[in-house]
Write a sequence for this structure.
């Protein structure tokens, strides 16, 4: 069996390992799962065996993703956008890559930036104007 090491420590010491068997129950190897690269409900094929894995990270229901896609109807391309919720920011950046300047920190109150907020989350300052309110998100424009 091939052993992979990092320094003097085997890589498998801190990573989850799945023993893979074929349909007859014979061992055909093992998989080291990298939780940062796992996709939702992906079937990983390894030497003819399959293992079902699950996403560990941000997930949104399909209607919320559709709502994020439609934000380009309310926010002009090239605008500065602040998305406070990290998981929602992940999806916003993935869906609108290169269309907006996505801010990592809250913008100044009088910046003219847009804020995409989760409906049940914290709201922007009272001076912000509501541009859109959907089932999952609200978009505000700062003065």
């Amino acid at each position: 069996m091939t052993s992979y090491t990092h320094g003097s420590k085997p890589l498998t010491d801190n990573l989850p390992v799945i023993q893979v068997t074929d349909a007859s129950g014979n061992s055909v190897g093992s998989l080291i799962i990298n939780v940062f690269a796992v996709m939702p409900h992906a079937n990983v094929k390894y030497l003819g065996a399959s293992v079902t894995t699950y996403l560990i990270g941000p997930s949104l229901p399909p209607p919320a993703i559709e709502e994020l896609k439609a934000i380009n109807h309310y926010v002009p391309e090239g605008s500065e956008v602040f998305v406070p919720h990290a998981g929602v920011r992940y999806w916003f950046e993935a869906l609108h890559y290169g269309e907006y300047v996505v801010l990592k920190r809250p913008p100044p109150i009088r910046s003219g930036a847009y804020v995409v907020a989760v409906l049940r989350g914290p709201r922007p300052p009272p001076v912000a104007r509501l541009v859109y309110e959907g089932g999952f998100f609200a978009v505000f424009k700062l003065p």
Residues 78 and 98 are 8 Å apart (CA to CA).
